Amino acid sequence: MTERRVRGAGANFAAQIAACKARIEGVLEALLALPDPGSERLRAAIRYSVLGAGKRLRPTLVYLTGESLGAPLERLDTPAASVELIHVYSLVHDDLPAMDDDDLRRGRPTCHRAFDEGTAVLVGDALQALGFAVLADGPMSGTPAETRLEMIRLLARATGTAGMAGGQAVDLAAVGQTLTVAEIENMHRRKTGALIECSVLLGALAAGVTGGRELAALRRFGAEIGLAFQIQDDILDVAGDPALLGKATGADAAHLKPTYPSAAGLTAARQRAAELHDAAIAALEPLGGRAATLAGLADFVVNRAS
Amino acid sequence: MTERRVRGAGANFAAQIAACKARIEGVLEALLALPDPGSERLRAAIRYSVLGAGKRLRPTLVYLTGESLGAPLERLDTPAASVELIHVYSLVHDDLPAMDDDDLRRGRPTCHRAFDEGTAVLVGDALQALGFAVLADGPMSGTPAETRLEMIRLLARATGTAGMAGGQAVDLAAVGQTLTVAEIENMHRRKTGALIECSVLLGALAAGVTGGRELAALRRFGAEIGLAFQIQDDILDVAGDPALLGKATGADAAHLKPTYPSAAGLTAARQRAAELHDAAIAALEPLGGRAATLAGLADFVVNRAS
Fold first, then answer.
1. Tell me, what's the pLDDT at B3?
2. CB contact (8 A) between residue A96 and residue B118
3. Can you state the angle between helices A145-159 and A164-174, rounded to 10 degrees?
4. Helix A73-94 vs helix A40-50: angle between axes, to the nearest 10 degrees?
5. Which among A55, A73, A242, B120 would be 20 to 30 A from B258, CA to CA?
6. Which class is B2-303 in CATH?
7. pLDDT for position B6
8. pLDDT lower than 50: segments of chain A
9. Does A136 touch chain B (CB under 8 A)?
10. Tell me, what's the ipTM?
11. What pLDDT, on a 0 to 100 scale, did the predictor assign at position A10?
């Protein structure tokens, strides 16, 4: 079954990522299609924030991990949607004036600029609830209740103080400060890495890999590419091509945000990303031939230019 | 078993409510005791917002419903904590400058005044995640995974666009507008009623009542007292005693918020609250003798002066 599904890293890899992206767009569109006569503005702001833009890295990780391990695609739609909903909620709240105060996101006005600040708070709040709701409720053919619960546990941990919310708090407190490399890694692992790691694990759980050596390997893989992804983000903000990124560079420095390159230098940052990439690939060893697609994804995360 | 636990409405009722309150304080304190070296400020703001104040109505509903149906108290701590964490998150976000812009809550500076606005956004975000995390993870002796999942489904529905977040969006949009009584009831049922109804249902589920006539009765009971509670809140804001309330009255009018009394008059509001109280008691009929404590709680909700 994995032979049929997974084409491996190579010429088709970009097509595979594009297919994941197209699939999650459809899933999210269907999820958010219901009208809400009581709060049309909130519904419009939710659709504006979720649909039509974004790399969809986290759902892609769910799909590619799950597929690599033999899960049918239909069973991956729900966990893929849940991580993207949580991710979008965090973007909407991070953009708020009291947080990063960003006017643009994915080339469009941020939610609080397109709508208003109160609505943006509610969009994030509602999306977080929806992220948990779909895991508890959404179609996930044949997945035992205990596995769904474990998914919810992982998602809640990745979202809360131990993960995203805690990492964002460190980030807020770090503005204008000098952080050590270790402190920056801790912040990145919580703020960005935790949900990326969770995405890999949800894909594995949906495929029935609920423990043991393979799950531990995937956890390690997810943690390493999660940190690598954020370091690459930091690098692109210093040395990326604005035309490819679709946004101006230098935002971190303008916001006085400590980053990996600001603490360790650009060369060390590139070296650390490569090191994490290699550690991620090495972690996949217990998966044997089923690791090809995920290895390709690790390359993609570190080599991306946008 | 219910004979031993439930003392019924009467002289002991206030003591019973006080016992629930004391119990949930201990449960919440234990939940939030862990240090967090990475984000001490967030942790302090979470503890400030959750601990030491509040009526604790929602956990009390979980305890009293569960106890009435024979659940051991230890099994109710986790669902009781989950609804209070969600409730506190909603208060912290509702108080934000972009929402109700309140400086005082429970007689103390609101979270964003005591800390800062970004931290208050994160406190709400983290508490929402924690509310789901405890239901997925917390001790709940002998509760099947499927029942926990159903609890999470109910909590997510009560929290999201169909419930609290949607109701708050209607509330935001309603400032300065004239709403019909039906529109106000819809807003109140979502913003306040949904989580109160959910609290009753979680208590029932923890007691093993997972469907059928009794659960339907409790759902109806919860919905009626949920709306009654908010109408009584509206009434107290117009006609309450500031000394008993511990806060100034007239806040709704000052915020240009449509309320039940502003739409229908104070007399009609009192009549509607009494009607809902009676409907709530009537709904309890299938529970027979086990309804005594819950009936007492309905009295308490409508007759309260603070």
1. 32
2. yes
3. 10
4. 110
5. B120
6. mainly alpha
7. 36
8. 1-9
9. yes
10. 0.94
11. 54
